[in-house]
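User: I'm putting together notes for a lab meeting next week and I want to include a structural view of one of the chains we've been expressing. I don't have a solved structure, so I'd like a prediction I can at least talk through. The sequence is below, exactly as it appears in our construct file.
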Amino acid sequence: GMILSESELVRWGERIGREVAVPVFIALRGPLGAGKSVLARAVARGAGVVATMPSPTFNLVFTYHTERGASTGATDLSGETSARDPSSGEDQVGAGGADAATSTAVAVVHADLYRIQDPSELWELGWEELGAGPELILVEWPERAGPLLPDDRWEVGIVPTAPGSGFREVSVERVGNPPHLPGFPVSVDQEEGPR
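Assistant: Thanks for the context. Below is the predicted structure for the 195-residue chain, given as structure tokens.
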């Protein structure tokens, strides 16, 4: 694996969000507190999510519909909740308008399977529909999905090098034939100019 600082991890995630072809399934493995959500949020930001992303543990799955560069809010797969950007106080769903179909619309799906006891529980979450559209799917605790993980995916392992150091050892493994994952290994020299 590569040792990445927090800022490198975030920068790599944002680049994935901006550039990766969809649909793509990225499994995020690592112990509690390893930084899986840090990477997931960075990928989502890169893809255009501006809503605050809560930890999905209690809702299991959140879907953020974006055009790359423009957010249109969030709903979870069960359709019960819609996440709002608390700073704006208004629901952003549908902000993309009628032209969303002609833009590069990307749905960011952030799932945390920590509470799943058996893979069969995933069917209730709409698991079989994942990846049917232009989705960037980020799954924490993917081992809970067992044999239901897709054949084509990226496996990203994140392990803290030392508690509180902010540095993590990140490994990337390609399973099957997922689309190219940009920007790894990442290094400071590959900074793409001023932000």
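A couple of points you could mention at the meeting. The first helix runs from residue 6 to 19. Strands lie at 2-4, 24-29, 61-67, 70-75, 82-83, 105-112, 135-140, 153-160, 168-175.

User: Perfect, that's what I needed.
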